[in-house]
């Protein structure tokens, strides 16, 4: 397993609690900002809808805004902004989900960019995180995390659980990994059909949902490569990987932050040999994202000074693959010095959304159009 490169800057840390009716949750805290703070930006697969969390003083809302992202947004108040839930938008843009620290999962339908009535789903699974959903919002996947043993967080557990909507309502599948202290899964990815689930647990695993709605689990290996899954296409046929060849070594301390990006394609259930994404020079990829169709990549790229550490330039870039060839990267954001960028996402049409942490402003840009700030 490769080591994760250190972040080029220290991320802001926070502790907060939010309530929506009986909802209550806890996450990390920062000092309140004077203006609104935009977080957790997510786009529908076609780029027609943007959903995000907005914090104003002590209040928190879930926001939705349709293209061209200059009209009136729909807002769903979530209560006091003492905590930030983890929302998830379905690929078709018709459903949003979030969970709280008690394991309760909430759902709200979305019709033409407007929120409907929220409902608490009849699911109780303990403390959960990393909520995912498929394209039509009928399958959810999450990590169910247990309490630590004493003060050692490493002795807790994180188990992979899938939840499915049937005609009679929602039902939870048996955990795919054990609920045993010290055994933690991570890095989940879910395809658009909700039938392929990738996660890390003693190596990379893939779980395929069969006709009986059971999950067949098997190891997923890429011989000769030390790579980790980063994104999965909606059709489950393209996987974005990050890492290096098993025989590759860091050439010098100045290249410690360099990370390769690979693409593997799936045919008849088998994953192919990773193919290196073209790059120029010693490029590192940060906040890496792939479009649901697997044809767009978005990432943050830093140019460094002669000392190999000082950041002299920040760029948010996108690149498109046509058939089997990648085009030239295009700059969405380009400025001197360091800029911390989060929440990067890209759609099938090349629409990009992101948050600039200085001021916590959210931005979205449709391909070939001007950038819109979520004021």
Uncertain spans, ≥5 residues at pLDDT below 50? 1-33
Number of helices: 0
Rg from alpha-carbon coordinates: 20 Å
Helix amount, in percent? Answer: under 10%
The span between the termini is 42 Å
Mean pLDDT reading: 83
Beta-strand residue fraction: over 45%
Biggest sheet features: 5 strands, antiparallel
Written overview of the protein:
The chain is an all-beta fold and 375 residues long. The protein has a domain at 122-220. The protein has strands spanning 15-18, 25-28, 37-43, 49-56, 59-66, 74-80, 88-89, 95-99, 105-111, 114-115, 119-120, 128-133, 139-145, 158-166, 169-172, 186-190, 196-200, 204-209, 215-219, 225-232, 238-245, 260-267, 270-271, 275-276, 286-290, 296-304, 311-322, 325-326, 330-336, 341-346, 352-356, 361-365, 372-373. The strands form 8 sheets. Strands 7, 8, 9, 10 and 11 form a 5-stranded antiparallel beta sheet that branches. Strands 20, 21, 22, 23 and 24 form a 5-stranded antiparallel beta sheet that branches. β22 (260-267) and β23 form a beta hairpin. It is globular and about 55 Å long. Mean pLDDT is 83; it is low at 1-33.
Q: Quick summary of this structure?
A:
The protein has 375 residues and is mostly beta strands.
């Amino acid at each position: 397993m490769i080591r994760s490169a250190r972040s080029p800057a220290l991320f802001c840390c926070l502790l907060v609690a939010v309530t929506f009716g009986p909802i209550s949750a806890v996450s990390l805290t920062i000092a309140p900002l004077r203006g609104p703070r935009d977080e957790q930006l997510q786009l529908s697969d076609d780029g027609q809808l943007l959903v995000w969390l907005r914090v104003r003083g002590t209040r928190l809302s879930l926001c939705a805004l349709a293209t061209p992202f200059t009209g009136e947004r729909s807002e769903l108040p979530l209560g006091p902004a003492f905590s930030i839930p983890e929302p998830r938008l379905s690929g078709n843009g018709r459903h949003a989900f979030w969970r709280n620290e008690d394991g309760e999962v909430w759902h709200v339908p979305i019709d033409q960019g407007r929120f409907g009535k929220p409902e608490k789903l009849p699911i109780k699974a303990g403390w959960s995180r990393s909520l995912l959903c498929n394209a039509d919002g009928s399958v959810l996947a999450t990590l169910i995390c247990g309490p630590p043993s004493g003060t050692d967080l490493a002795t807790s557990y994180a188990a992979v659980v899938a939840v499915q909507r049937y005609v009679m309502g929602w039902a939870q599948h048996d955990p795919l990994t054990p609920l045993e202290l010290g055994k933690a899964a991570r890095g989940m990815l879910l395809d658009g059909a909700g039938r392929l689930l990738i996660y890390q647990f003693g190596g990379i695993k893939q779980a395929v949902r069969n006709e009986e709605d059971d999950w067949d689990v098997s190891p997923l290996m890429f011989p000769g490569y030390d790579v980790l899954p980063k994104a999965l296409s909606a059709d489950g046929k393209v996987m974005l990987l990050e890492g290096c060849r098993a025989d590759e070594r860091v050439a010098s301390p100045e290249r410690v932050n360099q990370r390769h990006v690979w693409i593997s394609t799936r045919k008849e259930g088998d994953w192919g040999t990773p193919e290196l994404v073209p790059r120029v020079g010693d490029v590192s990829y940060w906040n890496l994202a792939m479009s649901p169709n697997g044809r767009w990549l978005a990432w943050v790229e830093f140019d460094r000074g002669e000392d190999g550490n000082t950041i002299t330039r920040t760029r948010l870039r996108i690149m498109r693959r046509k058939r089997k060839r990648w085009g030239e990267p295009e700059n969405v954001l380009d400025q001197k010095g360091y800029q911390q960028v989060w929440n990067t996402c890209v759609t099938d049409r090349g629409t990009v959304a992101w948050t600039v942490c200085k001021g916590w402003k959210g931005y979205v840009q449709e391909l070939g159009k001007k950038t819109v700030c979520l004021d």
